[in-house]
Design a protein that fits this description.
The protein has twelve helices and twelve strands. It starts with a strand and ends in a 5-residue tail after the last helix. The protein has a seven-stranded mixed sheet, with helices on both faces. Strands 6-7-10-8-9 form a five-stranded mixed sheet, with helices on both faces. It has helices at about 15-30, 40-45, 70-80, 85-95, 105-115, 155-170, 190-200, 230-255, 260-265, 270-280, 305-320, 325-330; strands at about 1-5, 30-40, 55-60, 95-100, 125-130, 130-135, 140-145, 175-180, 210-215, 225, 285-290, 295-300.
Amino acid sequence: MVKIVVDCFGGDHSPEANVDGAVRALAEITDLSLILTGDEEKIRTCLEGKTYDAARLSIVHAPEVVGVDEKPTDVIRLKRESSMMKAVKLLREDDEISGMVSTGSTGALVAAGQLRVGRIRGVIRPAFCPVLPTMTGGVVGVCDSGANVDITPDHLVQQAIMGSLYMQYVYGIANPRVALLNIGVEEEKGDDLRKETYGRLKTLPGINFVGNMESRDFISGDYDLVVCDGFSGNVLLKSTEGTALELLKKLKKEIYSKGIYKIGALLMKKMFADMKEFMNYQNYGGSVLLGTAKTMVKGHGSSKDTAVYKCIEQAYKMGKYDLNEKISAALPKEE
């Protein structure tokens, strides 16, 4: 049985989305048990009328909520009764709990991961690894997407190792193709950081390094994992998402501009619906904070029940396949 704790408050649609996602996860994953943290009365209200295995679900009362504008260090010191910090405390102290899911404050979650949960032995800094859909129907991960801005080649090498194992075991990609985000595909391109990292990744055992990648090819389907610093990764991720959303808006506007376009769109209604579903980030879960001693998954603040379910599924698979142990074993050992 894999046990996960879910912070039920902090997101835009909390606690309803968190509870509904948890109930769905219990229904679809039979060897999963969940602990929900938050205002117990409100959580039980959300559970009314729903069918679930009560033996695999428990609630820990936490009356406080972490706001998105609160300083992470203040949250850790002063918000110990919050749903997030109660979940973190359970994660840290209960050996049976393998991971947690939260749609709350990113900064507070990262700080709690570093200061309360700790790192896998040998990890320099944990890194976020979200995924996006590709044009070939798969997914591509980006590591890091915002946890670390100032980094070294050592960080990037570790991100390649952690991210590659994550894509392999959670998404079932055999021998993931790993690329380094750069301003050109040639080996000599980029600054000293990228050049040194390229040389190290090229000879790193166990990593299927396929070279540099330009941002325009991010969702082409030619790569399974993109390694980069947190600043570049965050820009890459949000630029890709923003471009896709604006193109959809433009397409919709053009369709409604002429009657003949509307007729054509009616005939292609199913195709447009499939495209919208394909690009819906709610279907791809959250960002796993790779490198923490126990699994932490950060869902988008606007996550609905499907996204919360996917986040729980990510945390479940990491626990099921003992991914943190695999990461620890794969990291280069100090001589």
